[in-house]
């Protein structure tokens, strides 16, 4: 069962629970009497053994956040060209802080690399892109974010209903109060911005203190990111991507062919996309064309590049993580 949540309600929410607005502008919408939330509560009670009264009290506190609906309609991965997206993440400050993070957590990162095969700079780069190494983890109540998207965002309502269920289950499993946890506008949490389903599948208690704390414990965050990438097929010792040049008329549809690597390095080379460094000829490979400052940049993505896209299904995201990891590796002398 969910434990009781004796969290004081702000005045606005007390008014909402009473069923009226008391001289407050734009009285917030809550989910205590939302039809979709009521049906969801029925499912959780019947299928997962939650206590109805505790869920009803929790959802009575959960508020619709219009800013979330606005933000999810314009993610940077879909609205910015590569050179603008890159400039967000490959800044001197983010690189310097990443080098400091590598130094501060050297032993933990080394242990995670030894266990998972994922290089320490890659682990750090994921954390750097996601949350500036744990400094900016999101200020939305996760229950607000997931409720808003589950019940008031029809395009992806089924996905966020599943994530909301996972969130309540993980809170119960870990003995956490779901009313107090914070994250991003999409409900992603902690240093590595794990969605609740990812937390339940991949978060680890890396320091052995009994809790997989991705919100406040960098050791658990490091171990969890490493575990996520390893479980998605990271190939230790293999490259991630390589710059390439055009040596012939490469078919245009090769650059818009999804994220799966359906050709090999040799096939791309024979078709006119030639890697600027030696790569295994039979390695699965993805042809990439990114909008740089002075025109297209051509790259070849390898299996480890694909693994990074499992964290966020975006070529721009994976390239930002890769390039940041290279700068961290160079800066740290790794």
Describe this structure in words.
The radius of gyration is 22 Å and the shape is globular. The chain has 16 helices and 7 strands. The protein is 51% helix and 9% strand. The model is unreliable at 1-27 (pLDDT under 50). The N and C termini lie far apart (47 Å). It has a 5-stranded antiparallel β-sheet with strand order 4-6-7-3-5. It has 334 residues and is α+β, with helices and mostly antiparallel strands. Helix 9 packs across helix 16.
What key attributes describe this structure?
334 residues; alpha+beta; two-stranded antiparallel sheet; 7 strands; 9% strand; disordered N terminus
Outline the low-pLDDT stretches: 1-27
Number of strands: 7
**Biggest sheet: strands side by side, in what order?**
4-6-7-3-5
Rounded to the nearest angstrom, the distance between the terminal CA atoms is 47 Å
Look at the structure and give the mean pLDDT: 91
Tell the overall outline.
globular
**Major β-sheet profile:** 5 strands, antiparallel
Helix percentage range: 40-55%
Please indicate the percent range of residues in DSSP E strands (runs of 2 or more): 5-15%
| Secondary-structure content class | alpha+beta
C-alpha-based Rg, rounded: 22 Å
From N to C, what is the helix and strand string?
A: HHHHHHHHHEHHEHHEEHEEEHH
